[in-house]
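Hi R.,

As promised on Friday, here is the backbone we talked about, encoded as structure tokens. Could you run it through your design pipeline when you get a chance and send me back a sequence?
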């Protein structure tokens, strides 16, 4: 009896394998075809005939170069598609258009340099898109056009220099945006304007030196803003004041701060805003002026306005002295005038006195 069951199982195993042709490529193709693993097999193209019942397909660590259009047309049940660590540089329009239930797409560590509008067609329910370690250099309004349900977008370690204002306009469900280790130099107002669900904004490891005043104000759900390792030498108070959230942690270490009185005042005011938490304030170091280089801002903080106070004092004293001197001079002139006038009067009097005679 036992042997019979065993043979029966073997037959089922064999028959199911026989209609999952992927095992021929070396894939792990279990009986129900739900989870198919084809990672690290040196595949140069996408396998055709992925069973329609597959929900997770792992193709990571292969040598795939192109994602042709409609390649997944029979795989409507796919929920997770892993293609990280391949050599993908071309994604044809409509590659994913039939994957209406796809929730996670991992394309990290490939050679993707642009995203067309056609790339995201059909991915309205995608929740997580991993695109770290690719070759993207700019983002525009087409890049993520149909990703209305996206919650997590990872663009870490690309070469992104510019983000057009409408790039994230459709991503109103987005909760995490990772732009770490890119080449951004400034942040323009409007860039994040539709991201009202965004909780985490990671901008660490860029070259940001300028941020327009209201750039963060639309981010009303933001709990973490990471600006570590950028090129900020100063910030404007208004930029952070305009963050209207319940509570936000802001990280600022690894920036070349110009420790002057102005910076001291900005941080003093920031500390007084209850909803903002400058978690790494004690680690901020000065780059300028040269005498303060590598000193902790916290250590020199109280002295930054002394020089200014002294200057103000000197100016005040100088002004006071000048005014005083002017007043004295004026007073003396008046007296002189009076005296001269008096003399004139007496002279005139003398004359009139004389004429009376
Ligand atoms: C594989 O074959 C079995 C039995 O022949 C059948 O029940 C099953 O539906 C087939 N699966 C696929 C994905 O074609
Ligand atoms: C893939 O190719 C590499 C290098 O040619 C080789 O070392 C490795 O064994 C191959 N892997 C498989 C699963 O064929
Ligand atoms: C991957 O593609 C890049 C350019 O697209 C090429 O330089 C590189 O040699 C390719 N790597 C492999 C392993 O084929
Ligand atoms: C984003 O990608 C980087 C690099 O691949 C990875 O280390 C990090 O864990 C990812 N972050 C998230 C939140 O997915
Ligand atoms: C980004 O990735 C490339 C290789 O993928 C690596 O050479 C570079 O050091 C990485 N940059 C950062 C800042 O991690
Ligand atoms: C902020 O970014 C830095 C640099 O990448 C990282 O070391 C740190 O863990 C991040 N902090 C948080 C709270 O995510
Ligand atoms: C400050 O820097 C020290 C030493 O580099 C590190 O251990 C600590 O975690 C940092 N604190 C914060 C809040 O990042």
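Update: got your reply. Pasting your designed sequence below so it's all in one thread:
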């Amino acid at each position: 009896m036992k042997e019979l069951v065993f043979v029966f199982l073997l037959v089922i195993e064999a028959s199911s394998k026989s209609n999952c042709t992927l095992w021929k490529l070396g894939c792990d193709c279990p009986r129900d075809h739900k989870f198919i693993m084809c990672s690290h097999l040196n595949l140069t193209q996408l396998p055709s005939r992925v069973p329609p019942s597959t929900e997770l397909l792992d193709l990571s660590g292969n040598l795939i170069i192109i994602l042709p259009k409609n390649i997944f047309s029979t795989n409507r049940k796919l929920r997770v598609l892993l293609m990280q660590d391949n050599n993908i540089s071309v994604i044809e329009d409509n590659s994913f258009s039939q994957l209406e239930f796809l929730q996670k797409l991992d394309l990290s560590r490939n050679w993707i340099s642009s995203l067309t509008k056609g790339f995201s067609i059909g991915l309205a329910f995608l929740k997580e898109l991993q695109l770290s370690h690719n070759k993207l250099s700019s983002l525009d309004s087409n890049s993520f056009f149909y990703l209305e349900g996206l919650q997590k977008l990872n663009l870490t370690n690309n070469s992104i220099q510019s983000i057009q204002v409408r790039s994230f306009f459709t991503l109103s469900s987005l909760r995490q945006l990772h732009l770490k280790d890119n080449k951004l130099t400034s942040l323009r107002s409007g860039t994040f304007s539709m991201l009202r669900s965004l909780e985490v904004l990671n901008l660490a490891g860029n070259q940001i030196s300028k941020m327009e005043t209201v750039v963060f104000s639309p981010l009303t759900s933001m709990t973490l803003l990471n600006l570590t390792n950028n090129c900020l030498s100063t910030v404007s108070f208004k930029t952070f004041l305009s963050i209207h959230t319940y509570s936000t942690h802001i990280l600022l270490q690894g920036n070349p701060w110009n420790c002057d009185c102005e910076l001291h005042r900005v941080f003093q005011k920031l500390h007084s805003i209850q909803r903002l938490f400058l978690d790494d304030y004690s680690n901020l170091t000065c780059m300028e002026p040269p005498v303060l280089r590598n000193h902790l801002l916290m250590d020199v903080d109280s002295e930054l306005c002394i020089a200014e106070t002294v200057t103000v004092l000197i100016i005040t004293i100088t002004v006071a002295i000048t005014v005083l001197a002017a007043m004295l001079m004026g007073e003396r002139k008046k007296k002189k005038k009076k005296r001269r006038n008096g003399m004139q009067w007496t002279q005139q009097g003398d004359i009139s006195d004389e004429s009376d005679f």
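One thing I noticed while checking it: The CA atoms of residues 161 and 274 lie 34 Å apart.

Thanks again,
M.
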